[in-house]
Amino acid sequence: MNALHTTLVELGTHRQTGARELLLRAGDVAQRLYLIEQGCARLFLIDSQGRETSTQFFFEGEVVSSMESLLTGRPSALHLVTMEACHLRVVEGAAIKARALVDPALQADLQALLQQRLIHYANLYTSAIADTPTQRYQALLATHQQRLERIPLHILAAYLGVSAVHLSRIRRKLKAL
């Protein structure tokens, strides 16, 4: 995604945030893309009982927005919040869309980003149905161990669909093996 990153660097402005800063509120239309230069963020939703569940985590070098909202102009179902203090490159969605109209490489990178998101959500859905919480946690450990250390336990537990106590038991059990 070289064209996308190049465009974000060219068109973007620097923004520093603190931890737990809201970048997008569910119900609002996403207007910006963020390139995380340092720090991490997460997309999450709040269910009818007020419980937060993360749908995806983003770290250095990754691009984040509520892509569905940004592209359709419809309100986002998700909140976007920083988990750590972040250094971001921020680009207005309208500027990216305008550039993409005349830049085939950028169009291809945006398409690839959307495909990655779609695949991530399909895998998340399939895993939630087919795998146990222990299996889901082990899969994350195998692919993202260093990143997991940066995610608070209660947020990771909700992502896996278990309580923080249950996740602690899973971790303790796996360490004993």
Automatic annotation (TrEMBL):
Specify the Cyclic nucleotide-binding domain's residue ranges.
1-92
Q: Which SUPFAM superfamilies match?
A: cAMP-binding domain-like
Pfam families to which the protein is assigned, alphabetical: cNMP_binding
Q: Which PROSITE patterns match?
A: CNMP_BINDING_3 (PS50042)
The protein in question is named CRP-like cAMP-binding protein
What organism is this sequence from? Rhodoferax saidenbachensis
Q: What is the lineage of its organism?
A: Bacteria, Pseudomonadati, Pseudomonadota, Betaproteobacteria, Burkholderiales
